[in-house]
Structure formats: C-alpha cells, structure tokens
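Notebook p. 47: complex prediction with 4'-phosphopantetheine.
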Amino acid sequence: MRPIAVYPGTFDPVTNGHLDLVERGRRHFDRLILAILRNEDKQPVFSVPERIALIEDAVSGWPNVGVDTFDGLLVDYAKRIGASVILRGMRALSDFEYELQMAMMNRRLAPDVETVFLVPSETYSYVSSRLVREVARLGGNVEGLVPAAVAAALARRMHPPGSPSR
Ligand code: PNS
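Predicted complex, structure tokens below:
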C-alpha cells in the first residue's frame, strides 16, 4: 500500500514549480494533499479560500490530489489525516538549511512521519511565490510561471481596473 503524503506550504500563490512537484510526487503516493497553512500573522495577497480555489482549479485533472488547510503543528495535522510523508521541494542549495531545520524538527516531534524532498524541473528552479508576487506587483509578466488563472487573479488583485497606471 502506498502512503498518503502532505505537501504543506503557504501557496500565496501556487506556482508552476509547486505543480511540477505535485505532478512528480503524486505518482508515488496513494493521495497527495496540498495543505495551506492558515497563518493569520501574515498579510497574504490571496485569502485562504482564494488560494484553495486557485489550487483546486490547477489540480482538478489529478484524481489523487486534494487541497486542505491546517493550523498548529504540521505533524499533528499529518497524523490526523493519516499521512506518513511530508513532501517538500528542494530547488537549490539556498533552500537546504531552512528545509533541513524543518525536517529535523518535524522528525523530533513525530519520528514516524518522514520528510521526502523532490527536485522540481530546472525550468522552475528560480520560481518562488515571493518573486512571482513581486514581479506581478511591479507590472511584470508572470505567464508561464503560474497557471493562467493565477496570473489573471494576480493582475486583478495588483492592478484592479481604474487603479493608477504603473
Ligand atoms: O511554503 P512555506 O511558507 O515555506 O511553508 C512553510 C510551512 C507551512 C511548511 C511551515 O511553516 C510549517 O510547517 N508550519 C506549521 C507549524 C509547524 O509545524 N512548525 C514546527 C515544525 S517546522
């Protein structure tokens, strides 16, 4: 029997790099759940329901992929849904320290939950939600870095009709 995996993150917004990882990861797991952290401290561009809708739209073609939200400890959430794997992406060396710390802490908290890293396509190795938000905010083109629906939602959010020109 293949394990259930949780792919946690902020996903503000989901990028093609995230989706590349989902496409790779979903083949190895019975179910893969993208779990959005409900973090009231941050000021996200998209609300949690908006992020859920954008992800649901992007993953609708993959039957064993789902979307959910969580707060509190990730490992508690993973146990609650029966996930024995935490999936994370490793784009570059710069990700390593942060990811290693989280993986070690999660292992300490829940030794039975294993963190698995996958490497996204090199096409997306430089893509992050933070950079996508910044480029979109400054009027740059993010097509090809995010799903079309996300690019449209970013344009509407950052530059609503009637707003001053950039
Ligand atoms: O995409 P992100 O923002 O790098 O994701 C970070 C996330 C959501 C994976 C991380 O902040 C998290 O797991 N938060 C839940 C709180 C938790 O379990 N902390 C202790 C282990 S690091």
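Notes: Residues 16 and 147 are 6 Å apart (CA to CA). DSSP finds six helices and five strands in the chain.
Next step: compare against the earlier run before touching the bench.
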